[in-house]
Amino acid sequence: MSKAKGEWKLINWIRARTRVGHPRVPLGPGDDMAILSLAREDRCLLTVDALVDGTHFDLAKASPRKVGYKALAVSLSDAAAMAALPVAAVAWVALPAKRTMAFAKQISRGLADAAERFDCPIVGGDIVSGSGPLSVGTALVARAAGVKPVRRSGARPGDALFVTGTLGGSLLGRHLCFTPRVREARRLAQTIRLHAMIDLSDGLSTDLAHLCEESGVAAEVEARAVPISRDARQLARKDGRPALEHALNDGEDFELLFAVGPRDAKRLLTKNPLARLRLTRIGRVTRGRKVTLVGADGHRKVLEPRGWEHFR
Amino acid sequence: MSKAKGEWKLINWIRARTRVGHPRVPLGPGDDMAILSLAREDRCLLTVDALVDGTHFDLAKASPRKVGYKALAVSLSDAAAMAALPVAAVAWVALPAKRTMAFAKQISRGLADAAERFDCPIVGGDIVSGSGPLSVGTALVARAAGVKPVRRSGARPGDALFVTGTLGGSLLGRHLCFTPRVREARRLAQTIRLHAMIDLSDGLSTDLAHLCEESGVAAEVEARAVPISRDARQLARKDGRPALEHALNDGEDFELLFAVGPRDAKRLLTKNPLARLRLTRIGRVTRGRKVTLVGADGHRKVLEPRGWEHFR
Question: Is A4 within 8 Å of B84 when comparing Cβ atoms?
Answer without folding.
Answer: no
